[in-house]
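To fix ideas, we quote verbatim one protein's residues and fold tokens.
>
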Amino acid sequence: ATAEDDPFLESLMDTSLYSMGAYFCDQHPDLVEEVIGQAEAKANALGLSTWSVSISHSQSHSVAFVVAIG
């Protein structure tokens, strides 16, 4: 689904926090890939295989919680 097709996805992108994150990813793709690779390696080393994610946001704040289990 794209943001244009899904009001929920569109609402997630209607914040300055998303814009900053997207800008950072665009400007530093190698760093983003390195962080993702390190996180994946750590999760594998810990035997983590299942993730539960909860995300919420307002116009000025965002929060996310992730619970991982093996």
Q: What stands out?
A: Residues 21 and 27 are 10 Å apart (CA to CA). The chain has a mean pLDDT of 83.
